[in-house]
Amino acid sequence: MKVRQLGRVDYEATWAQMRSFTDARKQDTEDELWIVEHDPVLTQGVAGKPEHLLVNPMNIPVVKTDRGGQITYHGPGQTVVYVLFDLKRAAFGVREFVIRIENAVIALLKDFRIEAQGKRDAPGVYVSDAKIASLGLKIRNGRSYHGVALNVSMDLTPFSFINPCGYEGLRVTHLHDFGVDLPANDVGIRLSAHLERTLTAPT
C-alpha cells in the first residue's frame, strides 16, 4: 500500500481528492493510506441528524459529507488516516473491513500499553467507556474512501458541542490522557503500518 503524509489540509478539498482518486481507479490501482490533520471542522454523515449538533459557540464549520455515521469533530492534534482500498480485490465485505480497521487501532494502542476494544453496535474504538477513535466510510463500486480518526493530543472541547457519533453523553478521550505525547503525524505513521498489516492479512 502507498502511504502519503499530506500534513494539515482542508477537509472539503481532501474529500474531493478522495472521490476523484476513487472514481479514477483501475483494477490494478494500488491501495493508498492518506495521513492528515484538519483544521477544526464538524462533519455530518449521510444519516446524520441535525439535532446531534447541540451548540456551536466557536462557529466551527459544519460539512455534510457522504460517509456513513452521524456527526463528529476533526481538529489539530487528531490523526486521520483515509483508507482508499479495493474491497472487491481483497474479497471481503464491509463488516470485515470495519473490524480490520478497528483491530489496527487496537493493536496500535496495545503498543502503548492501552487496552481498547470495538463495539459491534457503535463502530469505533473505545478505552473503557470513552471513545478514542471514530470510523466513517464510503464504499463506491466496491472501493472505499474516508477512514479512521484517532484522537492524539487535542482540544476535546468541541466534542461537548455534539452527541459524538449520535450518542448522547458519550465520553471522548485522547492518547494524551494516557501519557502518550507524540505528534499526530507520527502516530498516523504508526497506525498506517498496523492498517497495512491488518488489511493485507489473509482472510
Topology:
Layout: E1 2-9, H1 11-24, E2 32-38, E3 41-44, E4 62-64, E5 71-74, E6 78-86, H2 87-90, H3 94-111, E7 117-118, E8 125-127, E9 130-140, E10 143-151, E11 171-172, H4 184-200
Parallel strand pairs: 1-2, 3-4, 9-11
Antiparallel strand pairs: 2-6, 3-5, 6-10, 7-8, 8-9, 9-10
Helix pairs in contact: 3-4
Would you give an account of this structure?
There is one protein chain. This protein is an alpha/beta fold and 203 residues long. It contains 4 helices and 11 strands, in the order βαβββββααβββββα. The chain has helices at residues 11-24, 87-90, 94-111, 184-200; strands at residues 2-9, 32-38, 41-44, 62-64, 71-74, 78-86, 117-118, 125-127, 130-140, 143-151, 171-172. Strands 1, 2, 6, 7, 8, 9, 10 and 11 form an 8-stranded mixed beta sheet that branches. Strands 4-3-5 form a 3-stranded mixed beta sheet, with no helix packed on it. The two termini are 17 Å apart. The mean pLDDT is 95.
Number of helices: 4
Count of beta strands: 11
Q: Which structural class fits the helix and strand makeup?
A: alpha/beta
* CATH homologous group name: Bira Bifunctional Protein, Domain 2
CATH architecture: 2-Layer Sandwich
Defining key terms:
11 strands; alpha/beta; 8-stranded mixed sheet; 3-stranded mixed sheet; 4 helices; BirA Bifunctional Protein, domain 2; 203 residues
